[in-house]
Amino acid sequence: MPEVNKVAIRFKDGRVLKGRTHDFMPGKPLFHLHTDESPQAIDIRMEDLKAVFFVKDFEGRPEYSEVKIFPEKIPTSKGRKIAVLFTDGELLTGFTLAYDPKRPGFFMLPSDEMSNNDRMYIVASAVKDVGFGRRADQLISEVMPS
Question: What is the mean pLDDT of the chain?
Fold first, then answer.
């Protein structure tokens, strides 16, 4: 039985859909989303997306603002620290084990342990800039000056 994941998907045009998927596969051109609003699964084309957020719950905490800086002690099991700047100006920070600029996307874990996201799949075509290590810190300070 395939695993069912709770996801919030963000489209490049700004739309957001929430639902469940059992057939998301990185590198595949599409997957299916089951929402509470529709009895039919919706075909989701990866090329239309900015990111797929694998969430703890659909409500989240709208009043909470995620911390973009990295904790002082980073477990190496989380991977390399990364900052991702999207073409729409949004900045995400976290950790990745498998970034490859030649691939259509990559997974990352959020840097904020209080995040509602368990992990995120970032669609490379929606990304403007990526920074690792010190470059991640530099990108954060460029986008979010003190």
Answer: 90
